[in-house]
Specification:
Elements (H helix, E strand, L loop, with lengths): L1 E7 L5 H11 L4 E7 L14 E5 L9 H11 L4 E5 L3 E3 L3 H6 L6 E11 L4 E2 L10 E3 L2 H4 L4 E3 L1 H6 L5 E3 L7 E5 H7 L4 H4 L6 H11 L3 E12 L15 H23 L10 H7 L10 H9 L2
Parallel strand pairs: 1-2, 1-4, 2-3, 6-12
Antiparallel strand pairs: 4-11, 5-12, 6-7, 6-11, 8-9, 10-12
Length: about 300
């Protein structure tokens, strides 16, 4: 069974996403929708494969990490798949992803923009996202991520390909891998969704696992744009203020934790990942020296 976890703060596209999953999945699934601080105006379509969870408080905001962790805690599947609540999928996406997922792997599908008309992938939209890279911290302020244009354009024929950093909209792994890595860390990152993909991918790579893009299947993600926009997580002004305070703390924690190799469960140091994917856009040859000098300035 694949347990598909959908953290949701907005009903805007939730039903379409759930319907698409139910229509496109070909194997045994359960869909666990975790509603964060709201109830949909119209209940989700009744289906025995769908479980709806609510944190128990209206107008609160527990956040993406707590919502995903809540869904995982009650799930029963051998595989855990997290998706955003505004996505469409390929026929049989679940089987195509699980058949290429080894014990310590994270598998992501090729990511397209979503076309509202027909609720499918927009092949005329922005270029498909197959791989991202970890940004250089001294220019981006923190370890973060950007699309890796060269790999996205020049490795289209590598159907199961190493992915340094995923987009975070959709990923799948075995439950045993999730449990081993202790995902997702709410204590040090707070309730907000920032750096989710960085945590998942770095923990996987540095523990000796592998993150791969399965280009035999796809997910289409709604980025916003024309028409109704994704409501997102609907933070209040006070929450936004706290978010920036928490993000500053999370940024400091992230840089220190990974660059200084403080994760006790790692098999490899951070340097190993940069060397594996070298050259990485924006990273200078003397990156270790620059980072060391900056930390000790």
């Amino acid at each position: 069974m694949v347990s598909i976890i959908i953290p949701s703060r907005s009903r805007l596209f939730l039903q379409k996403t759930v319907d698409d999953i139910l229509n496109k999945a070909k194997g045994e699934i359960e869909v666990i929708v975790v509603l964060d601080g709201y109830w949909p105006d119209v209940p989700l379509r009744d289906d025995k494969r769908v479980i709806v969870v609510h944190h128990g408080e209206l107008r609160s905001n527990f956040g993406l990490r707590a919502s995903v962790n809540c869904g995982v805690a009650i799930s029963k599947g051998e595989y855990i798949m997290k998706i955003d609540d505004h996505c469409a999928f390929d026929e049989g996406f679940d089987l195509k992803m699980t058949e290429t997922c080894e014990d310590n792997w994270v598998v992501v599908p090729r990511l397209y923009s979503l076309k509202d008309d027909g609720w499918t992938k927009d092949e005329a939209g922005r270029a498909p996202f197959d791989c991202g890279y970890v940004t250089y911290p001294l220019t981006a302020g923190t370890l973060s991520g950007k699309p890796w244009t060269w790999r996205n354009e020049n490795r289209t024929d590598v159907l199961i390909d190493d992915c340094m950093l995923s987009a975070g909209a959709c990923y799948l792994m075995k439950r045993s891998h999730w449990d081993k890595l202790g995902l997702l860390d709410e204590k040090n990152y707070g309730p907000f969704p920032s750096l989710e993909n960085l945590e998942v991918c770095l923990k996987t790579w540095l523990s000796g696992g592998r993150v791969v893009t399965n280009k035999k299947t796809w997910c289409a993600h709604r980025w916003g744009g024309k028409g109704p926009k994704n409501k997102g997580w609907g933070y209040s002004n006070n929450q936004v203020k706290k978010m920036y305070e928490n993000r500053h703390a999370a940024v400091n924690y992230t840089n220190d934790f990974w660059l200084n190799n403080k994760w006790p469960d790692r098999k490899y140091d951070f340097e190993w990942l940069i060397e594996k994917f070298w050259p990485v856009p924006g990273w200078p040859d003397n990156w270790k020296e620059e980072i060391y000098n900056n930390q000790n300035a």
